[in-house]
Amino acid sequence: MFKNEYGSKLLAEAVESLATLPGIGRRSALRLALHLLSEPEPNVEKFASSIVDFRSKIQFCPRCHMLSDDGSCAFCDDSSRDCRTICVVESHADVLSIENTGQYHGLYHVLGGIISPIDGVGPGDLTIKELGDRVAAGGVDEVILALSTSMEGETTAFYISRQLAQYNVKLSAIARGVGFGDDLEYTDSMTLGRSIVNRQPFKS
Q1: DSSP class of 176
Q2: How far is the CA of 52 from the CAs of 3, 43, 46, 48, in angstroms?
Q3: Residue 44: inside a domain, yes or no?
Q4: Confidence band (pLDDT; 50, 70, 90) for 109?
Q5: C-alpha–C-alpha distance, residues 14 and 34, integer Å
Q6: How far apart are CA 27 and CA 15, in angstroms?
Q7: Nearest Cα to 149, choosing from 70, 94, 71?
Q8: Per-residue model confidence as pLDDT tens digits over 87-101
Q9: CATH code at position 31
Q10: Is 38 buried (19+), middle (13-18) or exposed (0-12) by CB count in 10 A?
Q11: Dihedral sign, CA of 137, 143, 147, 150?
Q12: Pairing of strands 67-68, 59-60
């Protein structure tokens, strides 16, 4: 049941929906809803349509699992990138964070999460097998484990290192400029960029 504090059920529904977005509280949701109300209707319709299209039409690259409009993603299709280096990340947001540093020019592999038994996430729920298949196919010299420095991230990195141990590939981890427990998505660009450039051999 919606609260009467807004004086409108429609406004209350809009606020409730907007407040489900990460980092958006009820006050911010109310401001956004009222802003949308002040916009010309075609602008709001275009805004809503773009969200619906994004959710319904977005695809995932069959190679690296990054977001894609159609088939392979822009990174895998870019012939100027170093195809012999793969940076392994937890999420799509991490790819964008690393790209924002301007310090990395190889390919990516999005795991879709990290191993977390308490949350019911095991190796089979991630794209670790697909990563192994990419390395097994040859042509990869280095795999950079750019995962969060939490216990779950460390566990995931260790598991991946064991899976790739049979292949002649260099394993690296981002330098400790990223503090323990930090998520890459929220690390500033300069720190993250230095962590990529100053990566160290992975030690299990």
Answers
A1: T
A2: 27, 14, 10, 6
A3: yes
A4: very high
A5: 9
A6: 9
A7: 94
A8: 999 999 999 999 998
A9: 1.10.8.420
A10: exposed
A11: positive
A12: antiparallel
Q: Are residues 85 and 35 in the same domain?
A: no
Q: If you compute the radius of gyration of the chain from its CA atoms, what whole number of angstroms results?
A: 21
**What letter represents residue 3's amino acid?**
K
Q: For residues 94, 99, 105 and 106, what is the CA-based torsion angle, rounded to 10 degrees?
A: 20
The residue behind tokens 């779950």 is 152
Encoding tokens for residue 107? 């390919």
* Chain centre distance of CA 182: 14
Is 66 a member of any domain? no
Listed range (83-87, 127-131, 176-180, 186-190) with the worst mean pLDDT = 176-180
Q: What is the distance between the alpha carbons of residues 117 and 123, in angstroms, rounded to a whole number?
A: 10
Q: What is the CATH number of the domain that holds 145?
A: 3.40.1360.10
Contact 177, 79 (CB under 8 A): no
Longest dimension (CA), the chain: 66
